[in-house]
Queue: 4 jobs
Job 1
Amino acid sequence: MSTPTIVTFPDGALAGDGNVTRVESHLDGTVIVVDSTPFHPVDHTWPDQPGDAGAISVGDDTVQVAEALMAAVSDEGEFAVGSDIPVKRGADGWTWLVGHRIAGAVPPSLAEGARVSLSVDGARRAGLSRGHTACHLASLALDLALADLWRKDPGADALGTPDFEGRANQSSRIHEGGAVDEYRLGKSLRRAGFDTETFAVTIADREARVNDQLAAWVASGAPSSVETEGPTIIDRRRWHCELPEGEAVILCGGTHVDSLAAFASITVSLDLSDPQLLVMTTVATPAA
């Protein structure tokens, strides 16, 4: 029976060794599963952060990993990768794995049982980690900037602010330079007590408030870290950031910077070209 993949990326690892447990053909290329990996995979149910890229080596042979992605095998032996996985992450009856999608041909040496070395593209990881941390900070700052627009209690975010992010976010896409988040401003949000009309006419002021808050947080150089409940890919992980207003803790499977000193700045722009859809674009500029 398969065992879940052990992951070391929550501690910031960029390299490691492991044993190949599966070599599977897939429409997008061969997928290699290793029992332990430093690669962070894209989540198949909430694909906000892209998977790591890098390389796998065995002896003199090296192959390029185009992207790490979630994989799973059922108790009946069905193997699935990425969006083909038919169940939610952590579902019973499935063993959860990290797959490494290979760009190009796979040499015979990279076979089941081989001992391999894995190395992650550090520049890409650093960019995605900045993007993910900036994404969380931007959402918290947005919640603060919109707090006075609620007529009912929508629940609280990680800082105790009315949770616009949790109520309205419909998609989040992180990249090496930041993130793009989309929020649905429809009838359900108005019924929940959010004043969309006032928001629309004060959006420039709200954007300025978000950016002022982000500038203050970046200036604080607050520590940022990932807490894990266990070593496997499906063990829960939480992002912690010790902001001046209090410690923010958000359930999150991604990677993050160690400190807000990693940023020169974080800025957002708010676009309400479609009155039913707010688009927040976050730009994360790294420190020199």
Note: Residues 58 and 255 are 27 Å apart (CA to CA).
Job 2
Amino acid sequence: MFRSIRRLLFKLLLYLMAGSALLVLVLRWVPPPGTALMVERKIESWVDGKPIDLQRSWRPWSELPDDLKIAVIAGEDQKFAEHWGFDVAAIRAALAHNQQGGSLRGASTLSQQVAKNLFLWSGRSWLRKGIELWFTGLIELLWPKQRILEVYLNSAEWGNGVFGAEAAARHHFNTGAPYLSTQQASQLAAVLPNPRNWSASRPNAHVSRRAAWIRPPMRQLGGSHYLRRLHAARPDWWPHWLKV
């Protein structure tokens, strides 16, 4: 009986792994209709008795402003083009910091944040972290860097019920995402660590300082030249169809 149960569980695990890989592969080309975080926020609003209208409009890569792409990389993951899903040095630094007590410091890359927002629930359990590792690996294997950033910018939370760059631009600055200025882009990137309590359009002193800190790396990274590097950010042995 125990052997049968083990075999059944093993088969179930294989099916889940294969199904998740197929889902990630499909989302390489198909815009995700929503995210797990959006579902979670909607359920939270029902439980709290404070319904919210989720705002999200998909913008393809070509319509997302370069300034916002670079600002998010500068503020959240400056090694985005070099790592393969995990910034080991940042993880070690965060672990050392957290062992000293005080406020917790995260070390999630953009790839990890996409995996978490798209497929998983909030929390810090080892189970969730393990599943996040799996989905991050799939995303890095099956998506180009441009696609990872495109999905991130269309899925990130930028306020209560506000998801994605287009909804964020309209909510905070009453404009479309393609028309964001450099300063507006840096302010949107600055609030990403705490988007429900910080405002990009009415920044407090901390957000203003953080936005000012983000703007110099935006120039140092190289702007549109850096973004062109993302298209080639794959090893030479990578299959050609996965580089496209």
Note: The chain has one domain: 11-243.
Job 3
Amino acid sequence: MTLIIRDFRPSDAEAAAASYSAGRPHLMVTPAAVRHQVASAAPEQHYRLPVGELDGAVVGSGRVGVHASSGAEGQGFANLSVLPAARGKGVATALLAVAEEHLAGHGATRIRAWVDDEPTAVAFAEKHGFERGRCAHFAHLDLTAPLRPVPELPAGVELRTAADYLDDPRPLHLVDVEGSQDEPGDLDLSDLGYEEWVAEVWERPDLDRELTTVVVADGRAVAFSAVHSDGGTRYWSAFTTASAGYRGRGLAKLAKTDSLHRARARGHTDAYTNNDATNAPMLAINDWLGYRRCASEWVYLKQLRAEQL
């Protein structure tokens, strides 16, 4: 058995996407999105995607970098994935070693990783010095079943899609950044500049602008439900939010419900979403829509030792 850890090549995109989603039907990533994430990452993010090659075949991958848009310094991330059949062969351990060395070399003092709520994954994280943090839940909605009707539009409110903002997506960036400021979590990622947002968010190849519903009130965008699609039958809720002054009016629920109806009309059959376990308002919307929890994950945190820095 020969194990090699090397940097990602564009030809690895399909294998890297497979290692990310294998055994995790609630996750969705396309090869095109993998390639885009590597190509679009800001230089200050020091993004790296190492892959694990076992006997000539890519069986694992890691998404590693620095949270450059965080207000706190020294925050790194390392999210590792290995095909189920290749686990227990040292691939994840080797990927983690490369990730820690890379992050330490770029000034990270703390590593943040998402870990499946599954005994083997949790044991691996804790064995390597990570400590448990926040919890998030995944949920699934069967789009072949009846959907809740789209709520009645309040006076002065209209629905558009992200496709209406192709010439100038700045209004959506403003809503996104404002919504991120109040997003539950242990890391502030609201400081995402417009150019970086365009590269990382707006230009993602799996962002489905026709399914991304935008709520307009008082002449401006005030809420949206962003959607990623695999181009087939799977739908992923990337982010649903409303501007601070427009919350509590049901506009996020309106956006998400309308988007799901658009997806069903197009032939999508399965919708997935993910929320912090403390995000009661969005969890309530998902429950109302009929989503049912299908998996969970934990944030695990690790301080890098002095000798690693």
Note: Residues 3-108 form a domain with the Aminopeptidase fold (CATH 3.40.630.30).
Job 4
Amino acid sequence: MWSAAEGGHLYQQSTRPLTLSYGLADSPAGLPAWLVEKYRASSDCGGDLSSRFSDDFLLTQVSLYWFTRTVSTSFRPCYEYAQGLTRRGERVDVPTAVALFPADLTRPPRSRTERTYNVTRYTRMPRGGHFAAHEEPELLAHDLTESFRTHR
């Protein structure tokens, strides 16, 4: 089960985000280790991170968090939701397209998604993960194009 093998960070972020963020924000080795591990675990790379992300890309991501000191604020949505500080939104009636990538963090069934959204397109992608825009830009662009085509 994914949550047991890979979901520990979500529990940590939803219960004790500051403990984690202080360590990462202050460690030039800890932050890249944390982020690279998250990219490996949440992408469709089969354990080979370099098959999806260049070193330059990963260093850019680390630099964005490091120089802006924003790793702690990136944990905030997880914490706020878990603590009941963020309410679930009302139903979204705007036509909504959903693209599910097999290595993403969640893959809700259409029936669950339709409870909250007016789902007009629901696509199960053949590959890709949480970072689909970088991993599978052509698949994502094609799905977006087809999605908007029906609204012209």
Note: DSSP finds nine helices and two strands in the chain.
